[in-house]
Design goal:
With about 250 residues, this protein is of the alpha/beta class. The chain has a single domain, classed as 3-Layer(aba) Sandwich (Rossmann fold). Helices cover about 45% and strands about 15% of the residues. The protein has a seven-stranded parallel sheet with strand order 3-2-1-4-5-6-7, with helices on both faces. The longest helix is centred in the middle third of the chain and has 29 residues. It is globular.
Length: about 250
């Protein structure tokens, strides 16, 4: 018999856009894609952080450039993506959380979180898909959601709602664009140790709640997401679309 061979995880010759790339999970995703040979465009509002990351990546011999952009500005986002060749890979790690008991949620907080986590994510994904469709190219579009896209959580009604919404749009987009070879998926991490989660881990009550829920008995690190994003971006995930890769240490298992 002819033995099968594992499809390649390499991304040589592919263009990747990583939104929210200035820190944390987004920066780690950018590194993961570049390690596999992709030409990575780093996108976020904070230009100095993007420049610093790009320079570090270039020093490793990887391909990286920057796109300073606020993706909540839909017109600017559409114009920036329309002006470039199609991106073969999108990773959207841009996100916002303002936690409070649901009874205390303000309209301002609700609008701010949904504006970035749902509205901007929707139209960013659409903009990248439009370019792929125009050029007749396949692609892999990945939104970073959360385990809270599959369960509820303390003080997280708005955040959880937005992440559930992205899971829903992902399934519908995957159905619509699947015939064109465009795959759409999410990665749903548990609590990952980053600068943005430091305050949560510093709260003893919240830290105890997290520890009680993660079956592998440790919190996540950004490196836990890197393999997942490299997989979904690559040909190794050629038949994976419309789904969520949950990286939660078993949180949602019960």
């Amino acid at each position: 018999m002819t033995l099968p061979r594992t499809p390649s995880f390499r991304l040589d010759g592919r263009r990747a856009l990583v939104a929210g790339a200035s820190s944390g999970i987004g920066a780690a995703c950018a590194v993961a894609l570049a390690e596999q040979g992709a030409q990575v465009t780093l996108c976020a509002r904070r230009e100095p952080e993007l420049t610093s990351l790009a320079e570090e990546m270039q020093a490793e011999g990887w391909q990286a450039d920057i796109l300073p952009l606020d993706i909540t500005d839909l017109a600017a986002t559409e114009a920036a993506i329309s002006a470039r060749p199609a991106f073969d890979v999108l990773v959207n790690s841009a996100g916002l959380a303002r936690h409070s008991p649901a009874i205390n949620t303000t309209a301002e907080d609700y609008d701010a979180v949904t504006n970035l986590n749902v509205r901007a994510a929707y139209f960013l994904t659409r903009s990248v898909a439009r370019r792929l469709l125009a050029e007749g190219k396949p692609g892999s579009l990945i939104n970073i959601t959360s385990q809270m896209a599959h369960v509820g959580g303390i003080d997280r009604a708005v955040y959880s709602a937005t992440k559930h919404a992205v899971e829903g749009m992902t399934k519908s987009m995957a159905i619509e664009w699947g015939p064109h070879g465009i795959r759409v998926n999410t990665i749903a991490p548990t609590f990952i140790r980053t600068a943005l989660t430091a305050a949560t881990f510093a709260n003893p009550e919240r830290a105890a709640w997290i520890a009680s829920k993660i079956k592998l008995d440790r919190v996540g690190e950004v490196t836990d997401i890197m393999g997942a994003v490299a997989f979904l971006a690559s040909d190794a995930a050629a038949l994976v679309t419309g789904t969520s890769l949950i990286v939660d240490g078993g949180w949602t298992a019960d």
